[in-house]
Specification:
This protein has strands at 2-7, 10-13, 18-26, 31-39, 46-51, 57-59, 67-72, 77-82, 91-99, 105-107, 111-116. It is mainly β.
Length: 117
């Protein structure tokens, strides 16, 4: 089993910055890709960014150039630096980890990000 605990959400004005962190524990050796998803009210959950175990990074087009995902294997954390935030970035952000053989999908409890205009 894998446990994910997010931190760092909050309320910020448009143009501001937030940094989300996700602490990973449990069967860490079984983890492949890790990433961040978000869900806005009334919308489906969507990928924000993910990073494969080999370092390949993928971003949602809407956050390219503004968000940066990073992974620290020594500290077992994955972070999301969010700059130039927009009201449309508002939502609950979830940390995600995938089993390296895609046998399971693990989720954190979610952290609220609210961007005011």
């Amino acid at each position: 089993q894998v446990q994910l605990v997010e931190s760092g959400g909050g309320l910020v004005q448009a143009g501001g910055s937030l940094r989300l962190s996700c602490a990973v524990s449990g069967s860490i050796a079984s983890i492949g890709a890790m990433g961040w998803y978000r869900q806005a009210p009334g919308k489906q959950r969507e990928l924000v960014a993910d990073i494969k175990s080999g370092g390949w990074i993928n971003y949602n087009d809407s956050v390219k150039g503004r968000f940066t995902i990073s992974r620290d294997s020594n500290k077992n954390t994955v972070s999301l630096q969010m700059n130039s935030l927009k009201p449309e970035d508002t939502g609950v952000y979830y940390c995600n980890a995938k089993h390296k053989f895609y046998l399971a999908d693990y989720w954190g409890q979610g952290t609220q990000v609210t961007v005011s205009s």
